[in-house]
TrEMBL record:
<dbReference type="InterPro" id="IPR020846">
    <property type="entry name" value="MFS_dom"/>
</dbReference>
<feature type="transmembrane region" description="Helical">
    <location>
        <begin position="416"/>
        <end position="434"/>
    </location>
</feature>
<dbReference type="GO" id="GO:0022857">
    <property type="term" value="F:transmembrane transporter activity"/>
</dbReference>
<keyword id="KW-0813">Transport</keyword>
<keyword id="KW-0812">Transmembrane</keyword>
<feature type="transmembrane region" description="Helical">
    <location>
        <begin position="315"/>
        <end position="334"/>
    </location>
</feature>
<dbReference type="GO" id="GO:0005886">
    <property type="term" value="C:plasma membrane"/>
</dbReference>
<dbReference type="GO" id="GO:0046677">
    <property type="term" value="P:response to antibiotic"/>
</dbReference>
<feature type="transmembrane region" description="Helical">
    <location>
        <begin position="212"/>
        <end position="232"/>
    </location>
</feature>
<feature type="transmembrane region" description="Helical">
    <location>
        <begin position="178"/>
        <end position="200"/>
    </location>
</feature>
<keyword id="KW-0472">Membrane</keyword>
<dbReference type="Pfam" id="PF07690">
    <property type="entry name" value="MFS_1"/>
</dbReference>
<feature type="transmembrane region" description="Helical">
    <location>
        <begin position="91"/>
        <end position="110"/>
    </location>
</feature>
<keyword id="KW-1003">Cell membrane</keyword>
<feature type="transmembrane region" description="Helical">
    <location>
        <begin position="373"/>
        <end position="395"/>
    </location>
</feature>
<keyword id="KW-1133">Transmembrane helix</keyword>
<feature type="transmembrane region" description="Helical">
    <location>
        <begin position="341"/>
        <end position="361"/>
    </location>
</feature>
Length: 481
């Protein structure tokens, strides 16, 4: 009788242990992701301090962000494939280690070159970590209701990371110096790595013998890096050098496409682009993220360079946006999309984003946060909270079941590409216009404000482009009888 009782107790205990293990694994995955999200936001507020300390030029300062984003975006597809081959736990833990070590190097950097190089290594680690997280979540929670709950928690952590990043960036920079926005990743990374090794279940990959398209990864990463370099340096390179480098960029992208068409195991199956929804959604996302990321970068500079905010006040000023995005995404987006449809919700979100950028384009020299910054900030937050889940649903609905993982990787990649290109274009425009006005005798703060106004107007045009493209390409088509 006692053995039967013990067996029954064990039967009850095993599901409880399994539930605990899965939620512990979810916490670890969220912690690893939190680091990469923090890093994307925490740097923005510290930009002026980094520029002043290391002597970056206006356009060159964008490389503090782009040096991270380009390898991150360029390597997501390859990192996801390698995760399938060597095991996703191994890829995740290795990525955490690389990211943490690179963060320490960023914090210790004393020159522009060292900081940019360390940021690039951070991007590699971020790609290794991020590429496998969603696949691990789906494997942990195969049951639909539990999966939705887990992904909701994961999304909430992402939104919290955005809010925490802007605030921590300002607080750490003002209290301890900009180096600590990177050094803070050391304790988080060590704890997350130790927990991941202990908590995440080991898994066997398919084996490196199955192959991965390394030449394809090299081509697309090189093309993306060169493209952003051309955009940032267009004012300094001269017309001849710009045309030559633009031609080389086009050649690298062409070689990548040819490689994908002929490779036995391509990094990106070109048949994905036959889907109108998948292709259109990715194109819309590039424009939308270019608008949003450019706003975050230029907006932080406007608050500090024009309105005179310190780092902590700037970080606090941005808090309403990620908080509103997180609350609206979790509380309203799913129900609204279910009621109105993804297409209508996407268009409404893009209209709000366009309106928010149009309001910001007036950003005056003597502006007020309450009247000139907060209203467009909330419009942008509401628009993004509506548009992003709808756009994701449309993109994934255009992929076959067997291509879902690859489509997810592509969507993540175009998100990074959009952010990088938007940052490059808008920061270059703002700096060039400001320099032109200063050369004609304009006052520093006024010229800086006008440069940012031009960037915001350009972002408004980009948002209109995203709206028109979505309205035309993603419009639902009547089913054929």
């Amino acid at each position: 009788m006692s053995s039967l009782t013990e067996n029954a107790a064990e039967a009850v205990k095993r599901p409880q242990e399994r539930t605990y293990a899965r939620w512990a694994a979810l916490v670890v995955l969220c912690a690893g992701t939190l680091m990469t999200i923090l890093d994307g936001n925490i740097v923005t507020v510290a930009m002026p301090a980094i520029q002043s300390d290391l002597g970056f030029s206006g356009p060159g300062l964008a490389w503090v962000v782009n040096a991270y984003l380009i390898p991150f975006g360029g390597l997501l597809l390859l990192a996801g494939r390698l995760g399938d081959l060597v095991g996703r736990k191994r890829m995740f833990t290795t990525g955490l280690a690389v990211f943490t070590v690179a963060s320490v190097l960023c914090g210790l950097a004393t020159s522009q070159g060292l900081l940019i190089a360390a940021r690039a290594v951070q991007g590699v680690g971020g790609a290794m970590t991020s590429a496998v997280v969603l696949g691990m979540l789906v494997a942990l929670y195969p049951e639909p209701r539990e999966q939705v709950r887990a992904i909701s928690v994961f999304s909430a952590v992402g939104a919290a990371g955005g809010a925490l990043g802007t605030f921590l960036g300002g607080a750490l920079t003002q209290a301890l110096g900009w180096h600590w926005i990177f050094l803070i990743n050391l304790p988080i990374g060590v704890v997350a790595w130790l927990a991941a090794v202990r908590v995440l279940a080991p898994e066997r990959g398919a084996g490196l013998g199955k192959g991965a398209d390394y030449p394809g990864a090299a081509l697309v990463t090189g093309a993306l890096m060169l493209l952003v370099y051309v955009i940032i340096g267009v004012g300094d390179l001269g017309p001849t050098a710009t045309l030559l480098l633009a031609g080389l960029t086009a050649a690298l992208f062409t070689a990548f496409v040819v490689r994908q068409a002929r490779a036995e195991r391509p990094l990106l199956r070109l048949r994905l682009f036959r889907s109108r929804l998948l292709t259109g959604a990715n194109a819309v996302q590039i424009l939308m993220i270019a608008t949003m990321y450019g706003f975050q970068f230029i907006g932080a500079l406007y608050l500090q360079r024009v309105l005179g905010y310190d780092e902590l006040t700037t970080g606090t000023a941005f808090l309403p946006a990620p908080i509103a995005i997180g609350l609206l995404m979790l509380g309203l987006s799913a129900r609204t999309i279910g009621r109105l449809g993804a297409y209508r919700v996407l268009l409404a979100g893009l209209v709000l984003i366009t309106a928010g950028m149009a309001l910001l384009s007036r950003a005056p020299v003597g502006g007020s946060y309450v009247t000139d910054v907060l209203p467009p900030l909330l419009l942008l937050a509401a628009g993004f909270a509506a548009a992003m889940p709808a756009l994701t649903g449309l993109a994934m609905s255009g992929a076959r079941d067997e291509d879902a993982g690859l489509a997810s990787g592509l969507f993540n990649t175009t998100q990074v590409v959009g952010g990088s290109l938007g940052l490059a274009v808008l920061s270059t425009l703002a700096a060039s216009h400001t320099d032109g006005l200063l050369a004609h005798g304009a006052e520093q703060v006024g010229a800086t404000a006008e440069g940012y106004q031009l960037a915001f107007r350009t972002a408004s045009v980009i948002a209109v482009g995203a709206l028109v493209l979505a309205a035309v390409v993603l419009r639902p088509r009547p089913e054929r009888p």
